Automatic annotation (TrEMBL):
Name of this protein: Coenzyme F420 hydrogenase/dehydrogenase beta subunit domain protein
Domain of life of the source: Bacteria
Location of the Coenzyme F420 hydrogenase/dehydrogenase beta subunit N-terminal domain: 78-154
A single GO molecular function term of this UniProt record: oxidoreductase activity, acting on CH or CH2 groups, with an iron-sulfur protein as acceptor
Signal peptide: none
Database matches in InterPro entries: Co_F420_Hydgase/DH_bsu_N, FRHB/FDHB/HCAR-like, FrhB_FdhB_C
A Pfam entry, by short name: FrhB_FdhB_C
Residue ranges of every copy of the Coenzyme F420 hydrogenase/dehydrogenase beta subunit C-terminal domain listed in the record: 162-307
Length: 397
């Protein structure tokens, strides 16, 4: 028996079974396959190993003395971009979908791991291995619930595919990198999206009902750079709710424990990352981490408007003020929340500084969560870069 196929004797867990990561499981899908054989090494919430996997994926780990490396991970280049001709119905302008389609049509890959909606529920994710551009385009728009993307890994190995593109978020990609050499692939491309807070389907319903005026017609939403949550509705309208008006005291329990213990919002182990966190409003933020990522971006460069990243403002006081406010579940009256949102939008952090604001405010929150709920994991689970970021702030006990 070779090392490659030694995992095939393992048995996937049955639906609904208790997962090895217990309450911290992010439902990445690894345990739905015989790759559960490697879960103790691969799971991001059992064995945090970003620095080691960065070295394998990118040739080095991040430089903690470089602010951009510290926050955004190993990278060759960052830029803002949007498609010259957007894809209709895409979450933004369709850069991720376009890259995936080009890779498939140009023969660089035989399949693309992406996520459709289930037939029954617009927010229930259904991972697939897309082999046509139609299937790729059917996966456009983010799925804001925990998604078992890696549940298709057995199908990949059994299909005999040798060249594959996987689209996913940080916890999925960490597990994927840990088993990459067991998949029997000749070439793996990893296209990542940033991921901040995710929810179970029940948690999503509570968030929508607590926050939106019309929860049943929401088709997509994002926490945007203007400090508002943007809800896109079926009729094309966009509802905007200020961050500072969210009912924090009612929503503290909707986010998955895995997301409350995550320190990899920027998808450190992907070859190429496409999101919006570090871009001006209306643009997407692209991070090229290595030569494979550059190869992917080059396929679509002539279809993009691009511009350099910017960084303006100072996040630090806003982050420090937000720590006790979140901790105590403070919710402002809507008029005050709207006024604060307008002021911060005018004078607050922009571009990469907004991204740092988001990272700082979530890392401090998550550090406190781990310290209070999983103190035995604090030392091994919080990466060194996150420790350094959190140490800039005064935290409550």
């Amino acid at each position: 028996m070779t090392v490659i196929n030694s995992h095939r004797k393992a048995k996937a867990l049955k639906q609904g079974s208790r997962r090895p990561a217990k309450d911290l499981c992010s439902e990445c899908g690894l345990c739905d396959t015989y790759y559960i054989h490697y879960v103790k090494e691969a799971c991001a919430f059992i064995n945090q190993q970003i620095a080691e996997l960065e070295t394998i994926a990118h040739g080095r780990s991040r430089d903690l003395n470089s602010e951009n490396d510290l926050y955004f991970g190993v990278h060759q280049e960052m830029m803002s971009a949007k498609k010259i001709e957007p894809i209709e119905g895409a979450q933004w302008t369709g850069i991720v979908s376009t890259i995936a389609c080009e890779m498939l049509t140009q023969g660089l890959v035989e399949g693309v791991v992406c996520v459709h909606n289930s037939d029954e529920d617009r927010f229930q994710p259904k991972p697939i291995i897309a082999t046509t551009t139609e299937e790729i385009l059917g996966a456009k728009v983010n799925k804001p619930t925990l998604s078992p993307n890696l549940s298709v890994l057995e199908q990949i190995e059994q299909s005999g595919m040798k060249r594959l593109l996987v689209i996913g978020v940080g916890c999925q990609i960490q597990a994927l990198r840990a088993v990459e050499d067991k998949l029997g692939l000749e070439k793996l491309y990893v296209l990542g999206t940033p991921c901040v807070d995710n929810v179970t389907r029940a948690g999503l319903q509570k968030f929508l009902e607590t926050t939106s005026k019309s929860p049943d017609t929401v088709v997509a939403y994002e926490f945007m750079q203007d400090f508002r949550v943007h809800f896109k509705h079926e009729d094309g309208s966009v509802e905007k709710v200020p961050f500072f008006g969210l009912k924090t005291n009612q929503l503290k329990d909707v986010f998955a424990p895995s997301c409350m213990t995550c320190f990899d919002y920027v998808n450190s182990l992907a070859d190429l990352v496409v999101g919006y966190m570090g871009a001006p409003f209306g643009w997407q933020w692209i991070v090229v981490r290595n030569d494979i990522g550059r190869e992917m971006l080059d396929l679509v460069k002539n279809q993009l408007h691009t511009q350099p990243v910017i960084s303006r403002g100072d996040r630090t006081q806003a982050v420090q003020n937000s720590i006790p406010a979140y901790d105590q579940g403070v919710t402002l009256p809507m008029w005050a929340a709207k006024l604060m949102g307008v002021v911060i939008e005018k004078v607050g952090p922009k571009g990469l500084e907004y991204a740092r604001f988001s990272i700082d405010s979530h890392f401090t929150r998550n550090y406190l969560y781990v310290k209070r709920n999983y103190p035995e994991k604090l030392k091994d689970h919080v990466p060194e870069y996150a420790e350094k970021i959190v140490s800039q702030y005064k935290l409550p006990d």
